[in-house]
Structures are given as structure tokens and as C-alpha cells.
Amino acid sequence: MRIAYLFLCFQIGFVQLLFSQEVKEKFLLANGVNLHYLDFGGEGSPIIFMQSFHEDASEWYTGEMAGIANEFLPNYRVLAVTRRGWGKSDHTKWGYDVATQSEDLLGFMDALGLKKAVLIGRIPANQDMIWIAEHHPDRIAAMIMIGNPYLGLNSSISEIREYETELLAMSWDLGERALEMRGPRGSWSPHFLKDSTKGIDISTLRFLSKMDVESLPGGRNLFYMDRTIRQVSAPDFKPWNDRVAKAAMYFRELGKDQGRQEFIRAYLMEHDPGPTFRASLERAFGENLKTTWEPEIPENADPDLFWIEVYAPFFVDEIKAFLREHKL
Q1: CATH number at residue 77
Q2: What is the number of other CB atoms lying within 10 angstroms of the CB of residue 8?
Q3: Residues 124 and 53: beta-carbon distance below 8 Å
Q4: CB atoms closer than 10 angstroms to residue 299
Q5: What is the 3-state secondary structure (H, E, C) of 118-171?
Q6: What is this structure's pTM?
Q7: Residue 3: what pLDDT?
Q8: Checking DSSP bridges between strand 33-41 and strand 46-50, what pairing results, if any?
Q9: Segment-wise mean pLDDT, segments of 10 residues, the chain, 328 residues
Q10: What is the largest CA-CA distance in the chain?
Q11: Residue range(s) defining the domain that contains residue 15
């Protein structure tokens, strides 16, 4: 991995090397919480890279999405922010719902004197972007969504609620606070889902993959059922905290009970909110939405090299072309 990362710095471009040493780690008070962020520098229209569920702001610098943010220097002011509860941002006892964390981002922009910005992010960030687009559209210059947003089940059936809860508890990097930090986001629902007269008049680029779990039949919840049962049943599986140990026991028992599995599977297939949600999203955005399909990784390809040679340059080129098209 270390060799691959060094090669990444070389391969993605001279701009990455030129500006990487100037990235500054900073903090500011926004919406009553102290937020950690990275200031990449640059001038011009601001771009804010939003953290997903994992890592922190460094996701876009040295983490999973490395090699993207730096490529927008020096023509944009580039920032990446860490959510409350993650990394070095304040770990509060409340405020993990979509509305509050969206307000956190608006407070972040206010603190920096940014009237509007281009927002870029993945699944949970897409929820926040849509919330801001529906409540404060004047704050967004453009949206870039990587993947489809997540929509919770909110089922009244106890068996399904238990399944969704135990699946959330398996979040590997959130420790004992996984339910506290991820659970509240499952209740989010955009206005346009229930009201067909609602639309979003913001230029938006959406990246989709044929392996996007939100788009698979049954969605995220079904995709992870078989995967999690296999994971916890492996001889070398070791739970990383007591809450995960409890969730692992649930999934091991579920793996032995074919009847329960089939009940959950059938429910998730029948009540998958994804198709209706995505159709409503595409209607609400209309001509403002451009969808681009990500390149597929060839079988037996090295994931690190594929990211370096194909994925990262693809994202950068597509986003830059989109911004040029809309004169941003």
C-alpha cells in the first residue's frame, strides 16, 4: 500500500506534489461545535469536500479518496470538513441527524464567509446536500454526488427494526457509538419524495457504479445480510467492541435460521425504498441532473493501481468538465 500511495502522488500529477505541503489542518466553531477541517489553499470559487461515514476530512487527502481534492488547485479554494462526532471534530451527545449536520456545514460556510460553494461528497454527504438544496438552495453553486443517497427503512415490524439496528452496530470504525451516530440519519426523507411538486434547481453531477449497493435489488440492507453473516462466521473474526460482539451473535444466529433469513430477505425486496426514491430524485432534479457511470474495475486488476491510473483521474476530469460547462 505504501508503494502504491507514493506512486499515486507521482502519477496523479505535478499539481498534487506542488500543493500537498501547503495543506493546513484547522478548526473553527460552527453551529455551536468545533469542527476540524483541511484548508488546501487556492483561490476562486470555493469547493467543499464532505466526509462520508468513515475516516475524517483526510479521506480526500491521504485516505480513501486521495488524489482528488488537490487537483482543483490553484483555481478553486479547496476545503474538506470533518463531521461532528468523527475524528478531531467535537464529539457531542446529540446532533447526528441529517438536518443538524447540514446546519453544521452551513455554519462552517458562515464562519469562513462563504455565501455559496460547490459541494462534493458521497452517500451521507448526498443526504446533507439534498437537505441544504431543499432548505437553503442559494448556498449551493453546484452539487457533485458520488453514489446515491441512503434512505432508511423505518419499518414498524420489530424483526426488521432489529435487523437494521444490528447491521448499523457493525460499523467497524465507530466503536460503541455506531448506533448513536448513524441511526438518526435513517429517518431522513426529502420533501420531493412525498410532494411531486417539489423540485431542485441546482446543477448536479451524479456518479453511479453498477456495483452501487444502494441501487441493487433490496438495497444496502439486503446486500450486507449475506456478507455480514459470512464475516462473523469466519474462524478468524474478532469483534472490536462489546456492541459488535452482540451484533455478531445476532448475525451468527440469523445465519442458522433459514426461515428468518427468508422473511427478512422477502421484506427487504418488497419494501426497498430505493427505486421509488431514485425515480423521485430524477424527477425533482430534472434537466439539472447529469449522471455519469464510473469505469468498472477489470477482473483480477490491482485496486490500488486501478485507482491511480483510472478512477481518480476519471473523477477529476469529469468534475472539472462539469464545472467548466456551468462556468464555475
Answers
A1: 3.40.50.1820
A2: 19
A3: yes
A4: 5
A5: EEEEEHHHHHHHHHHHHHCHHHEEEEEEECCCCCCCCCCCHHHHHHHHHHHHCC
A6: 0.90
A7: 42
A8: unpaired
A9: 42 43 90 97 96 88 92 97 94 95 98 98 94 98 93 91 91 74 90 95 95 81 91 92 91 96 95 93 97 92 90 96 97
A10: 59
A11: 2-151+191-216+273-325
Alpha carbon distance, N-terminus to C-terminus of the chain: 35
Amino acid, single-letter form, for residue 75: N
- Cα dist from 84 to 47, 188, 258, whole Å: 19, 18, 40
Shared-domain flag, residues 118 and 243: no
List helix spans (H) across 170-288.
Answer: 178-182, 191-194, 219-233, 242-256, 258-270, 274-285
Of 248, 271, 294, which residue constitutes the final position of a domain? 271
Q: Answer yes or no: do 128 and 164 share one domain.
A: no
> Is residue 310 within a helix (H) or strand (E), and if so which, with residue range?
none
What distance in Å separates the CA atoms of residue 58 and residue 254, rounded to the nearest whole number? 36
Q: Do residues 181 and 198 both lie within one domain?
A: no
CA distance 247 to 245: 5
| 108 touches 81 (CB < 8 A) | yes
Q: Say how many domains are in the chain.
A: 2
